[in-house]
Amino acid sequence: MDARGEEVQGAEAGIGYVELRRGWCLGDGDFRQRMLDRAEKALEGKKLASVMGAAVKEHGEAKASKLLAEGLAKLKLNSGDLVGIAKAADEKKALAAWLSQQTLVPAEWIAAKLHMGHGSLVSRSRKWVCVTKEGRKCLLKLK
After folding, report:
1. CA-only gyration radius of the chain, Å
2. Distance CA 133, CA 111 (A)
3. What is the H or E stretch that residue 55 is in?
4. Terminus-to-terminus CA distance in the chain, angstroms?
5. CA of 141: how far to CAs of 52, 55, 93, 100, 127, in Å?
6. Confidence at residue 67, expressed as pLDDT on a 0 to 100 scale
């Protein structure tokens, strides 16, 4: 069926035009990952803030998740450790600033993943790594 409710020739049973229109790819997880990898290569070096859409959002979150895992490993932490660490712990602030510098995910996404509370702590973390010796030292552990 199309948006007007009319039958569309060749349409897969159960998938309407509205559902197709909202997604960015059809396929299994492997296909989706291949498309994300291609999107990463295609968007490399481009100003991502000017590109919008579900694919870019998902790509950004996938990249941020990957970087978060790398950062946690460099700090000898795991995601479970983040719950028990203070919201404004140096490790969390360094990770927040680093993720914010490397990706376009919203501060609220970073704050949620790091169990930091409000997204405003992410912007304060960016400032902290720029203006304090401790912040720069923590950030170096991630590079």
Report:
1. 19
2. 23
3. helix 54-74
4. 51
5. 32, 31, 12, 16, 17
6. 92
For residue 73, give both structure tokens.
Answer: 């490993």
Cα–Cα distance, 74 to 67 (Å, whole number): 10
- In order of 18, 31, 106, 133, the CA distances from 125 in angstroms are 41, 36, 14, 13
Residues 137, 116, 44, 69, CA torsion sign: positive
User: 55-79 pLDDT, tens per residue?
Assistant: 566 668 888 999 999 999 999 999 8
Distance of CA 17 to the CA centre of its chain: 28
35 burial type by CB count under 10 A (0-12 exposed, 13-18 middle, 19+ buried)? middle
Q: What is the mean pLDDT of the chain?
A: 79
**9-19 exposure pattern, b = at least 16 Cβ within 10 A, e = fewer:** eeeeeeeeeee
* Ramachandran angles phi, psi of 90, nearest 5°: -55, -40
Q: Name residues of the chain where pLDDT drops below 70.
A: 1-26, 36, 40, 43-59
Q: Which has the closest alpha carbon to 96: 77, 70, 68?
A: 68
